[in-house]
Specification:
Cofactor: Mg(2+)
CATH architecture of the largest domain: Alpha-Beta Barrel
CATH topology of the largest domain: TIM Barrel
Largest sheet: 9 strands, mixed
GO biological process, one term: carbohydrate catabolic process
Keywords: Isomerase, Magnesium, Metal-binding
Number of helices: 14
Organism: Halopelagius inordinatus
Domain Mandelate racemase/muconate lactonizing enzyme C-terminal: 145-241
Distance between the termini: 30 Å
Number of domains: 2
Amino acid sequence: MEIVHLDVIPLSHTLPEGEGVGDARGFGRERATTLLRAETDTGRVGWGETFVPGRIAKATIEELFRDDVVGMDPFDVESLADRSYTDPYHFGESVFVQSAVSALDVACWDIIGQEVGRPIHRLLGGRKRETLTPYASTMYFTEADRDIAEPIERAVEEGFTAAKIKIGNGVEDDVRRVRTAREILGDDATLMVDVNGNYRPEQAVRTATAIAEYDIGWMEEPVPPENLSGYRELKRSVDIPIAAGEAHYGRFEFKRLIDDRLVDIVQPNLARCGGLSEARTIAKLATTENVGVRPHIWNSAVGLAAAVQFAASVSDYPHTRNVPDPMVVEFDRSENPLREELLEDPFDPTGGVLDVPQGPGLGIEVDEEAVERYRVE
């Protein structure tokens, strides 16, 4: 079996004027990503996702990978990540290279799973896992003036027992948002916060100190991803667990976070970090050093499926049943048809439980007509 065709598919959906959502850094109205469809000479089709603009993804794959991947046996998938650091030399830690590898890698694993009749999380060495705990990623900053309580109230109505909210607009506003979320969620729910790198270390310390009383599960990207010294300073100064990784690429960047104890939780995005092969390496590095692993998800349904399969494979080490620490997966609650409409059977996080697909590969059936509706060139 070998790959005979690659199709790079840019997708986009634009929200109405005035309906942008975002974080402390600003608003956006476009939801965009790029899918990869890989087909073998036996008729198998595998799907992957790269979270970079379509033209860049297409150029990167065409220039650096197509000649090697077309004609490749999908079972050679793990050679892609290694090859990305050596050929082309000097480009391996580039965001565009690792993002392109992500799509190719996930598509190959999807094909492998179909060929052997097993879901990816079992191929990655995880025990059989039927469900995960979703958390609502919500309370975004919005272009329109909206009640900040409404999205949390909706999450509770939908049955979520965990949520992550956006902060990063100053201590006073951060406390207001966290207090509102905690009051609505209740004391038993898990609450995380996301700064999206909008603070300097001293600002992040002030907010962390002010919100600590609300029992925060983690503080995500309190400083910019490149500010490693800032992460080091925060780890010395705050008690809230620190999480990062959505803007880090490849095993070597994550190894720096882990080896230097800059974070308590790493968050690889399966459409950016190098794919499932690289995410498995990152998870092994993290669990070896007793650092938590929780995937970041801001993707289409394909990237979500990859993240769910990966999350289901991650070791519980060092926990036993006597230390409940369920694997939680991010579920964005903003409008996104690229997540809701691309699958014949979309993921449903309501009720506080997310089913892990048990079918072969990613365990999903992509609606190719829906893909074409949102395809852009």
